[in-house]
C-alpha cells in the first residue's frame, strides 16, 4: 500500500489527508495527524473521499475524454486533445479578431489549485488582453476581500485557527460552522469544554446546529447585520467600553462612524433587528470587555447586497475595542471553498492582479506587465460573475470558458444564466465530472483531473498553504487544469503570431515559482516558500525569502497594511435588503449548506451514504406558518419568487422565525423541478434567487429572496 499526503478538496478548513492506494486505486483516506488544520480529524465528507474516487464512480460520473458538439442540440462526440484544443484556439482567435478580447469571458473556480488559477489569470489578462476572468469565489468571499481591504488595507485574514484556543469571546456571525466547517467547529467545542468561562455568541436569523453551544443567540431579522453591529458600537461607546487610546494610536476615521452609530440606539436596533435590548447589551459587553474576542464569519455576511458594509461594520467593532493583533482576537473570515484564498492570492478575479495588486492601480498593472513580459495589462475593468453572464445573455460576451464550476446550477437568477449559455457562440466547459448541469450547454468539453490526481497547492482560511499531491494517474484522458490552460495558450500564441511563449511551464512547481516571485515585497510575500519547504509541512504566509516560519497572526505590532500604517474605520450605513418581503411575496427565503453535501453535489452526490443525513430537498418554515397554510410535513408546495417557481416538500422547523423559509443550496435540476416566471422549464434552488449584488464587492445576495409559498394542489 502507498500513502500519499494531500489536502481535502471540500472546504476552506483545508484539512490534511493521507490517501491510501494500491495498484492504481484509492483504498482509503484518513486525517493527517501532522496537519495543523485538523490534527488527524476529518468530517463525514472528508472521510468518504476515497469512495468518490472508486473505479465505478470514475466510470459513471467522470468526463474521460474531450468531446465536441457539431451543432447545438446534437450529442457531443469524442475528439482528440489536439483536435479539441485546435478547435478552441481557432474559434476564440476568430471571436477576438471579430469582436475584440472583451468578447471572451473565463469563469473559474475556488476548487482550482493556485497553479491552475495563475495560468488562467495570465492567459486572460496577459495573453488575450481581457480582464474578463472571474470565479465562483465571487459568490462566496468577495465581500470579505473588500471588507479587509477597506479597513485593514490588505486582503489578509489576521487570525488563525489556534486563536480559537485563546479566545475569551467567540462572536460567530452568519456562519453555520457546525455544518460548513465541521472540523473547525470540533475545535470550538473542545475549546469551550476546556474553558467554560469562554462566551460564545451566535448571530444568525436561523437557529442552526452552531447555536447549540452558544451562551447567547441573536436571531436577527435577515439582512439587518449592519444595524446590529452599529448598535453594538453605540452601546460600547455609551458604556465606555471602547479603547480610546488604541483607537487614537492605530486608526483613522472614527469620528465619522461615531456620528452614524449615534442614531443606532438600542430601541431602534431592537426594533429593526427583532432582538431584545438586554441581549444587545450582553453581546456588546462580552465582545468589548473580553480579554480576547475572535469573530468567525462566513456567507451570512458575505452573500448580501450589503456584504462589504456588513464585513466592515464587524471589523469596526474589533478596531473600536482593540480586539485584533493579539492571541485569540481578530476578525476571521472563513472561506467556503478549498482554494478561494489561492485565487485571491494570484489575483484570479476581474478586479485583482497577482499578489493582491489592484487592477485599478496603474503602478500595479505596470508591475504585473513587467513580470509577465507583456506590453501592458488592460485597464478596462473585467466583468464579475453576475456581470459576465448578463453580458453573455445580452450578446456582448460571445465565448465563455468555464473551468471546474457549475454556473447552470450555482449562479443566482438561473433564467439569465441559462439564456447566457444558450446565446454564447462558443461555450467551453473544463470539468472532471460529466454530470454537471453546465456540461449540457458545452460546445466543447475538456476532461480535467480532480482530487486524488491533482498536483499543486491550496491556501486555507488561515493563510496556510498545503500541498495537494496525486495518488492516482489521471482518469482516462483527463489533463491537469493548468496543463489545459498552457496547451491552449501555446496554440493561441501561434495564432496571434507570438514567437516566445508566455507559458514555459512543464510542472506545477514552475508555475508556483513564478507566482511566488510575483509576491516579492507584497503583504503576502511568499518568496521564501519553495515546494521543497512545503514538502516538509504546510506553511502560513507571509513567508519572505530567508524566513524560517510563516506568521500565525497579523498586525501584532499595531501597524496595518495602509499607507500610514493605521487601520481605517468605515462609516457603515444600514441599508435594507435588495428584495424585502412584501404582501405578494411574504417569506424571506435563505439558502445554506447541509452537513454532508458539497456545492452542486457532483462529488458528494455520487455516494448514497451522504444522503442519510438529509435525503431530499425540503423547504423549512416555522410550524405556525405551516399551520396557517394548513400544511403538514411532506406536503408539496410551490415556492415562488419574481424569477421562478419550484415544487418542494414542506417541513416544519422551529429554528426559523415567522415568515422565514430555508432551502439547502445543493439541490439542482435532478432534485427540484420548476419553471421561470415566463414559464420556461427551470430547476434548482437558484431558479428563485436574485442576482442583486453588493456595489463594492459585486457579490450577489444569495442569502435572501422574497418568496411566496402555496400548497401544490393535486389536479
Ligand atoms: Fe474536508 Fe472541510 Fe471536512 Fe476538513 S472540515 S474534512 S476540509 S470538508
Automatic annotation (TrEMBL):
The keyword Acetylation does not apply. Residues 1-57 form the 4Fe-4S Mo/W bis-MGD-type domain. It comes from the Bacteria. Belongs to the prokaryotic molybdopterin-containing oxidoreductase family. NasA/NapA/NarB subfamily. One of its GO terms (cellular component) is membrane. This is Molybdopterin-dependent oxidoreductase. Keywords: 4Fe-4S, Iron, Iron-sulfur, Metal-binding, Molybdenum, Nitrate assimilation, Oxidoreductase. GO terms for molecular function: 4 iron, 4 sulfur cluster binding; metal ion binding; molybdopterin cofactor binding; oxidoreductase activity. GO terms for biological process: cellular respiration; nitrate assimilation. The chain holds residues 1 to 715 of 922 of the full protein. Its cofactor is Mo-bis(molybdopterin guanine dinucleotide); [4Fe-4S] cluster.
